[in-house]
User: What shape does this take?
Amino acid sequence: MAGALSSMAFGSTGSAFEARAATRDPAWVKWLILGLSLSFFAIFIFLPLVAVFVEALRKGWGVYLTALVEPDALAAVRLTLIAAAIAVPLNLVFGVAAAWAIAKYQFPGKNLLTTLIDLPFSVSPVIAGLIYVLVFGAQGWFGSWLSDNDIKIIFAVPGIVLATIFVTFPFVARELIPLMESQGSEEEEAAVVLGASGWQTFWRVTMPNIKWGLLYGIILCNARAMGEFGAVSVVSGHIRGQTNTLPLHVEILYNEYNFVAAFAVASLLALLALLTLVLKAVIDWRARRQQTKRTVS
Amino acid sequence: MSIAVKNIDKSFGTFKALDGVSLEFPTGKLVALLGPSGCGKTTLLRIIAGLEFADKGQVFLDSENASDRHVRERQVGFVFQHYALFRHMSVFENVAFGLRVRNRKERRPEADIRKRVDELLDLVQLAWLRDHVPAQLSGGQRQRIALARALAVDPRVLLLDEPFGALDAKVRKELRRWLRNLHEDLQITSIFVTHDQEEAMELADEIVVMNRGRVEQIGTPVDVYDRPATPFVYGFLGAANVFEGRVEGARLRVGDDWLPLRTSSAADGAAVTAFSRPHDIEIEPDKADALGVKARIHRILNVGGMARIELHGAHGGNGASPIHHYEVELPREHLRSLALAEGQIVRLHAPQLALFPAAPPVTPQ
Assistant: This one.
């Protein structure tokens, strides 16, 4: 009661935490915590981001652009786009299916599935790559069968796509599971009682309710698919112009002391990251606006 | 449209939700499934709708066995406890949903759909909310939209799960009256689930009292209230005073006290549990050798049209509870003329006693 009163009195001047006498900290504590987090942010996050663009443009726009349109760089861009274009839709379908299964059905092994979905997050990407080498590589389980049938997976595009799928596997599902669980299945039941087919129920009732979460998951999934280094590095073989994705291309250029080109290509990835953040913020904002529009009439 | 269920069994794991339930619901009537939570009433409703399948037994809709029919094909109207309105659709689109999802052959032209939805919104008196989304509506409004949405598909039967459960007391009362009138106009066979006996009494043509997955009694509200078939029904339908004792001639022996019996269905010497409603109990000052159960007035609540008196049995309770509670209701003038005071010892008489065989045998004294 007293809390409610004091938050009414001070509510407009600060957060509830600061407004309440019980939780208000002395000014020096506040500034210490603020200073700590801001300087940490500046040194470890903001400075490197600025450095990427500064280094990339050190020798001017001409050199910067040449580094980007060079054939090997273009090939890397193309491969990165291909890997993302295959991995993201597949993980979209998988993510929706897994989230649906976990949120709406009861089945044995449900908890195990929920846990295993996070495996790509908890395992080192290098190990993820190695698994595919062990399974599909020349000395691997299916290696001789694959080479007999003239199918190349490791050190080729399919391996890169597989590794990308593995590491980006949880994003969509992770985003949707809590959302779908919180929404329950009453609306779907209502739709079915009213005569809707399973397909109609999904598109007309389930989909509109999860679309913002889904979009959010897709964007994060895409960012990771394009930026993945470790797993892809193991299976790629680093063949210039053929099996190099953007992050791998950056590494090669850097190892060759071609810093400007390396940073120029890296700046593409940094821009992708910034774009992802902007899209994320826009989606957040739109989803929240829709919420408030619904609750405040 | 008549509905019947035969020998329905349903278990969830080791919990038996329904145990051999057979019922017939008369055409055009409003029937209440009444019982405490966990008694299986909602499960039964969902089985009739097809949202749940029985382990055993059949569901008949219009004397056709619908047990294996998918919920989609049963053409029932279902109103969910929390309404389950489609949160991203306007009120209009919510009501139109059932008409829009029909396959091309059965779907009516857009103009017809619009006309029908507008009619339904008029029926529930919420046409002015047609462009709002569910989150902007009050609980009572959501309830009425959920009803309009269910009616849009011309259901053969209307099923309502705790229709007033999530509403505050005042809105609940209004909506009850409104639903009763609507049912009288539409005459559609309806079943609603409730745990509130007052709601069942006020709304239903017929009440099915359920307990632990079984039907305890079926009857009109007057039937089940005045002639409860089991001790459970007696206790569930209203406040009850319980006297445990033994029939001895034309009297009931309760501990050291005696209650005269007007009529008795129980044999002489039988151990019985006798029930009486608070307003059926008569109270008189204690006199030596008087009949009636001795009790001490604990509290007098003199509020409202009827005064309520809470009493404790003078001889203590049975083994289970140390104090035996009694409750008496009487008109306030009557209370004044009796001049009762808290702490006073009185005698209770129960001219209207319902006798049931005692559940566990009473230990002989």
